[in-house]
Structures are given as structure tokens and as C-alpha cells.
Design goal:
The protein has 681 residues and is an alpha+beta fold. A hairpin with a 2-residue loop joins strand 9 and strand 10. Helix 9 packs parallel to helix 10 and helix 10 runs parallel beside helix 11. The longest helix is centred in the first third of the chain and has 15 residues. The radius of gyration is 27 Å and the shape is globular. The two termini are 49 Å apart. The N terminus is likely disordered.
């Protein structure tokens, strides 16, 4: 997928009569009007194996689409400005090299010779002048077109299908170093044929050009494109929201075996700095793309990006994970209940380890050095790549990870571990939900994971102004031996009138190594002030949720998911039956409600919404805290609404989860129709 008018339009285009067209056009060469230059007359070269030395590590750079789309601000001044920022802000030195144009750089019509014509308003000096400027900065230049008759934007700019050799020659003459080749308006011509033809055309120019295949993963390019392109999109387009990013990550993770030097899985561009996610979520985005050895193409306008975006994008220790020359993509070690452990083998024998918390509450995520592939050893050096600190660990790799957060570590079996202070884990038990004017209890735990004792251990908990936070048990320990914990019970009270929502607290600890090295740690987390659910039976769409994430657009109340904008849904309809109340979602989706231990049951009618025709497959789950209380298995549009109910007695949080049916998330519009919570006082 790329920036298409609608998903249904994309399906109609891609689903055109492939076999008939191949026959009519002679193995896929499209028909053209009499006298129109096709540009595809040069003889094809022998099929290359892409042993060209390009993209031996995942490409790093910039692409404008996520931040500008086809708006007027996409122009020569912007592109040159990004190149300047790469140099001035240290991004070039950090490894970012490519400054890439996306759609809308050309006029809608070719010239009389069939050549592409740059838009003279956007690029008054032409494309070569832009490429020359970028090259003068020691950077590389990329461009975009589509493997169809037109590109993806609705304005209909000329695509490369049938013009491959002519367009490739123009790109080479302009000094292009990178081509993104999209999939729109492809006339149903076989994907392998279309992308192979452009590969051969690029090779025929004699210029080294990184070739990015953007066919949205529809034809499983990871199975056939290793000798066609240097990278291939594995999914549809990313959006600047949590649900979209996580959904794409989940589709890309299982493809690790297909990645390697010169052949990369591409889960789409980075959204860091665009403003649709929190900094915690953007750090997760950057961490997970790096451990997946994904291309790192910045998708924000760096002229407007906040300092936090540069801090994330410029983290060289995280970049080193992505750019490791061994070229391994990280693999999933475990993923239970939203607690993900992903490990990546590094060229020096170490392992990068991501502890990723998909859920909306802090969670303890744990593994071991041996489980991530390291040899058995007395102890290990553990480097925190966001804190930029090193510790020793006896083998346990564990952290309490904030909601939507990721702890990214590099673990090494070496002899230097005694030089570092012991790793300590900061943990939380209970107390993450409270009601205004009420006092709750929270237990914090500081655990020594190292091989050496932790000396002079202390813990301190702070909350928002006006909150009362008091320790009711010891906050210090003179010595904390390996494997032992300091537990502290805290009384936490939010004052009356505190508005519902998330409020920041921070657990801070300090300790020393036996040789005196001091180590301070902090665990920021959020306590949620919630409103008690009303007694009786309530529709979920009439209640205020704690959090909601969605794979496409926002979660909708009392309508279907619709498209990407809020309020663009339709009446909830499952197999012809219309429902007045409920939630319209798109996989992967999670909606959380505060139950406060007062609710007993959740009931609903669930299924795939009719707005996607015959497509879409989803599975529904109801969770009571960390327990899966009910699930449906995979449902499709062919089935009627299915009743589902769950016992949620005693749960603090009820979580409604919709996942894809195992075939990707395209068209996965799910309805929680007539969903109700039954609660007491």
C-alpha cells in the first residue's frame, strides 16, 4: 500500500484481470496509444543477482511523504533544507545519507519525447540541480515513481510501467542514488515482471542505484525479491499513531529469515517527530525498527521537529543496532500478554534485546542471557542503549517497562562485567489505578540482578503537586545481595477533584557498586485516576475508556471504523444486521475500561463489519486484567454476529482486543456491537 485515495480503490486496481492483461500485452508489456513513446525498447540484460555492494546495511535517510503528502510545501527549498539539517544537526555523521523525494515532483504529463518533466513551480531549477546540491553535502539523492501507468496520488502523475528504460536513464542522468518504486495503477500486470523490468533498466544505466520495491507486501516479495531489489515493503502504509505502528511491526517481525545485507524487510518510514505519538511511543518505534534491521527513513519535517525527535533519531547506540554489519533481523523470543522480548544477534557476538510493552500499563518483562542466544557465563555486561549506562547481570534480563515503552539493551558475555555496578530492576505492584479523594497502596521493589552486591540502596517515590505520597515501610538497605529485593509500601492519594486520566509518578533509586561506582535509576510511570463505573448495565460506548488504540483511524463510538478520519464511520452492520450501539475498530485494536473491581460481566455481539465487502478477518478477545476471559477465534465477513461474554469479576481493568485473522490487517474492520458492562456498587 501507498498513499492511495481509499483502500477499496487500491483493491480494485490491484485486483484487475492479471491473466488477461498478460496475454494481451505479451508477458505484461502494457498497451499504449499509437505514436506514444514507450521508453521500454532497450534490450534486457541478464538477470542480476544484486551482488553490487549496495545497501549492505539498511538505508538511512529522509522521505517527505509522511509529513507533506502532495501539499505545496513539498518543494526545492524544503528538500535542500533537510539536507542542510542533516549536516548541521549531526544526522549525516550519525549515518543518515539519503534525501528522497516522494510523489508529486513531476508534471502530470510527459513531454513530446515521453520524458518525465519536473514540476517547474516546486522545482524551478530542475531535479538535477537538487541532486547536485545534495551531493555537494556529501549525501545521496533519491526519487519516486510507480510500477504502473500513473503514480498513487489522485492527480495522476506519470508512472514507469512501459517507460522503465527511459525513466531509469533520466534518473541516472540526474544523479539519482535511490529509487522507490510504488505499486499503484499497475493494470493487473504481474508484480514480478514489473519489478524485474525496472531492476534491469536500472542496471543498464551503469549507475549504482538502491532499488526500493514498494508493492505493500501483497505478493510476498520477501520470497522472490532478493535478486530484484535491495529492500521491499512488507506492509501497507504506516500512520502516525500507536495502533498503526504496532500493527505493522507485528507483520514485519515474522519475516526475519528473509533479511540480510543487501536485502531488507521494509516496514515503512519513521513517524518520529510528526506529533501523533508520545516520546515514549516514538522511542519504541525507533527501537523496534532498529532491532528489526529496518530502513531508517525519517518521515518528519526536520525544520519543525522538536528537540526530542533529534534526541531519538540521533541515538547512535540504537542506530548501531540497526546498522550492525552482520545484517540479522531480530527475532521474537516471547510475546505473552503484550510483553515482547525480541533479540538480535550482533557481529561481535553480543545480543541486542528489546523488552517491549504493548499494553497500556507498566509491565514486568523478563528473559535470560541464555534465552536470547548468549553462552552460559558467570556474568554479563548489560548496556542500556537509551540511558547510555553499563551494568553487570548474573544472567537475568528484566525490567518494568512503562506503558507503550521499550527498554533496549545490549548484552555481552565478556570479562569486563566486574567493572560495572550491578543491574537493578525497578518494579511496581498494584496501585496504578485510583479514584479522586481515595487513598491507595503501591508497592515498589528494587531487585539486584547483578553478580555483585548493591551497596547503600535507596528508593524514593514522587507524584504530582497536591498528591500525598508516603512510605509506610523502609526505603533503604545498607547492602542488597544478588537476587535480593528492597520492597517499600507507599500510601498514595489523589486529592478530591483530580480530573480523570493519567498522572505522572516517578520511582527513583540509587545504589553503589562494591568498588564505589554510583548508579542512579528512574522509572517514570503513570497512575490513572478513573471514574468508578456506574452500577447496573451500561453500554461501553456510553462510558469513558482509559485508553484506545486502533490499526486504522480512531476507535468509533456507535458507528463502524470507517476510514482514517474521526467520525467517518457508518452504522454498525454485521452480515446485514444493523446495531445502534457499540464500538467500531480496526485490527490491531485495544480498548481499556476501568472496572475498579466492581464489574462482573461483559457481553457483546461481534463480527466483521459489512463496509469492507467480502474482505476482512479478525479475532475478538476480552481480558480481565492479565487474564484472557473470552475469545472468539477467527471471524470473517461471511458469518453472522457472534455472541461473546466474559466473567470479569474483580478485575481492575477490562481490555477489549481485536487482532487480525492471520492474513494481515487489510480490511479488518471489527464491530463490538451491543457491548455492555454489568457492574455493582
Amino acid at each position: 500500500m501507498r498513499h492511495l485515495p481509499t483502500r477499496n480503490t487500491r483493491r480494485r486496481v490491484v485486483g484487475a484481470l492479471t491473466a488477461a492483461l498478460l496475454c494481451a500485452f505479451g508477458l505484461g508489456a502494457p498497451a499504449f496509444a499509437a505514436g506514444e513513446p514507450s521508453g521500454a525498447t532497450e534490450p534486457a540484460s541478464a538477470a542480476p543477482q544484486l551482488d553490487d555492494g549496495l545497501a549492505l546495511t539498511p538505508p538511512m535517510g529522509f522521505n517527505n511523504w509522511n509529513t507533506t503528502h502532495c501539499r505545496a510545501e513539498f518543494n526545492e527549498a524544503m528538500v535542500k533544507g533537510i539536507a542542510d539539517i542533516f549536516v548541521e544537526r549531526g544526522l549525516k555523521d550519525a549515518g543518515y545519507r539519503y534525501v528522497n523525494l516522494d510523489d508529486c515532483w513531476a508534471l502530470p504529463q510527459r513531454d513530446a519525447d515521453g520524458k518525465l518533466v519536473p514540476d517547474p513551480v516546486r522545482f524551478p531549477n530542475g531535479i538535477k540541480a537538487v541532486a547536485d546540491y545534495i551531493h555537494s553535502k556529501g549525501l545521496k539523492f533519491g526519487i519516486y515513481t510507480s510500477a504502473g501507468t500513473k503514480t498513487c496520488d489522485s492527480a495522476g502523475f506519470p508512472g514507469g510501467l512501459g517507460h522503465e528504460y527511459s525513466d531509469a536513464r533520466q534518473f541516472a542522468d540526474w544523479g539519482v542514488d535511490y529509487l522507490k518504486y510504488d505499486n499503484c495503477n499497475n493494470q493487473g500486470v504481474d508484480a514480478k515482471l514489473r519489478y524485474n523490468t525496472m531492476r534491469d533498466a536500472l542496471r543498464a544505466t551503469g549507475r549504482p542505484i538502491v532499488y526500493s520495491i514498494c508493492e505493500w507486501g501483497q505478493n510476498k516479495p520477501w520470497e522472490w525479491a532478493a535478486d530484484v531489489g535491495h529492500l521491499w515493503r512488507t506492509t501497507g502504509d504506516i500512520s502516525d499513531n500507536w495502533g498503526s505502528m504496532v500493527s505493522i511491526m507485528k507483520r514485519n517481525l515474522p519475516l526475519a529469515q528473509h533479511a540480510g545485507p543487501g536485502r531488507w524487510n521494509d516496514p515503512d518510514m519513521l513517524e518520529v517527530g510528526n506529533g501523533g505519538m508520545t516520546d515514549t511511543e516514538y522511542r519504541t518505534h525507533f527501537s523496534m525498527w532498529s532491532i528489526m534491521a529496518a530502513p531508517l527513513l525519517i518521515g518528519s519535517d526536520l525544520r519543525k521537529a522538536p528537540p526530542s525527535a533529534f534526541e531519538i533519531l540521533g541515538n547512535r547506540e540504537v542506530i548501531a543496532v540497526d546498522q550492525d554489519p552482520l545484517g540479522k533481523q531480530g527475532t521474537v523470543v516471547s510475546s505473552e500478554a503484550g510483553r515482547w522480548v525480541v533479540a538480535k544477534e550482533m557481529a561481535d557476538g553480543s545480543r541486542a534485546v528489546a523488552l517491549f510493552n504493548e499494553s497500556g500499563s507498566p509491565q514486568r518483562i523478563s528473559t535470560t542471557a541464555e534465552a536470547v542466544g548468549l553462552p552460559k557465563a558467570d556474568a554479563y555486561t548489560q548496556r542500556d542503549l537509551w540511558q547510555h549506562r553499563s551494568y553487570n547481570t548474573a544472567g537475568t534480563v528484566s525490567a518494568t517497562v512503562p506503558a507503550h515503552g521499550t527498554v533496549l539493551l545490549r548484552i555481552t558475555a565478556d570479562h569486563n562485567w566486574p567493572l560495572h555496578p550491578p543491574a537493578v530492576e525497578l518494579g511496581l505492584e498494584g496501585g496504578l489505578f485510583t479514584e479522586a479523594g481515595q487513598t491507595g497502596k503501591l508497592t515498589t521493589k528494587v531487585t539486584n540482578l547483578g553478580r555483585t552486591p548493591a551497596i547503600a540502596v535507596s528508593a524514593a517515590l514522587t507524584g504530582p503537586a497536591g498528591w500525598t505520597v508516603k512510605a509506610t515501610s523502609p526505603t533503604k538497605a545498607l547492602v542488597l545481595p544478588p537476587g535480593r529485593s528492597l520492597s517499600t509500601v507507599w500510601s498514595v492519594a489523589a486529592p478530591a477533584g483530580t480530573p480523570p486520566g493519567a498522572h505522572d509518578l516517578t520511582l527513583r533509586t540509587a545504589h553503589r557498586a562494591p568498588q564505589g561506582t554510583r548508579a542512579d535509576s528512574a522509572l517514570p510511570f503513570q497512575a490513572r485516576v478513573a471514574v468508578a463505573p456506574p452500577a447496573g448495565v451500561s453500554y461501553a460506548s456510553d462510558l469513558t475508556w482509559l485508553s484506545a488504540s486502533n490499526g486504522w483511524g480512531p476507535v468509533e463510538k456507535d458507528t463502524s471504523n470507517g476510514e482514517s478520519r474521526a467520525g467517518d464511520g457508518n452504522p454498525l452492520t454485521i452480515n446485514g444486521t444493523v446495531f445502534a450501539k457499540g464500538l467500531g475498530v480496526h485490527a490491531d485494536s485495544t480498548v481499556e475500561y476501568y472496572a475498579g473491581g466492581r464489574c462482573t460481566a461483559v457481553t457483546a455481539q461481534v463480527g466483521v463489519d459489512d463496509e469492507e465487502g467480502a474482505e476482512g478477518s479478525v479475532a475478538f478477545e476480552i481480558w480481565a486484567d492479565a487474564k484472557k476471559a473470552a475469545s472468539t477465534g477467527t471471524l470473517t465477513n461471511a458469518g453472522a454476529a457472534q455472541a461473546v461474554s466474559a466473567d470479569v469479576t474483580g478485575a481492575q481493568v477490562v481490555r477489549l482486543v481485536v487482532t487480525d485473522g492471520g492474513d494481515g490487517v487489510t480490511s479488518d474492520h471489527g464491530d463490538w456491537a451491543d457491548i455492555k458492562l454489568s457492574c455493582g456498587t
